[in-house]
Amino acid sequence: MTRRLVLPGGVLVLAGVVVAYVAAIDPNRAGNYPTCPFLSLTGCQCPGCGSLRTIHALAHGDVREALGLNVFAMVMLPVLAFFWGRWTVARALDRPPRTKAGDPRLIWGLLGAVMLFWLVRNLPFGAFLSA
After folding, report:
1. Transmembrane ranges (predicted)?
2. Where is 57: in which H helix or E strand?
3. Separation between Cα atoms, residue 124 and residue 15, nearest integer Å
4. 26-71: per-residue pLDDT in tens?
5. How far apart are the first and last CA of the chain?
6. Please, how many CA atoms are within 13 Å of residue 10, restricted to the half-sphere of its CB?
7. Taking residues 85-99, what's their average pLDDT?
8. What is the pLDDT of the chain when averaged over all its residues?
9. Element counts in the chain: helices (H) and strands (E)
């Protein structure tokens, strides 16, 4: 059973290392990380803009600030945790891997939500979604 959990454990360790790095190297200070290419080229924020600062705020326990920086990233973190947990349990029980990503309606719904968030955060009435 231990061998089956090496990959999920590795993903968990890698995620922990990334969070620790972003917690230690402040993305709010200029020059620590590259600027988003979409933001640089268009002046508009992509769906991921603010995600590093969101992770930094969460790592320091500031949930309110994290929500203000990228609410979509905050919504997706529990979703990612759920899928990682489901994968880990399946590996622990030696179940076969899923060959289908999911119901196409859910995938298209997620894509639509990302596109809607991207659009609304760059419109004047959606400025509260921009960090």
Report:
1. 66-85, 106-129
2. helix 51-59
3. 35
4. 999 988 999 999 999 999 999 999 999 999 999 999 999 999 999 9
5. 44
6. 7
7. 87
8. 91
9. 6, 0
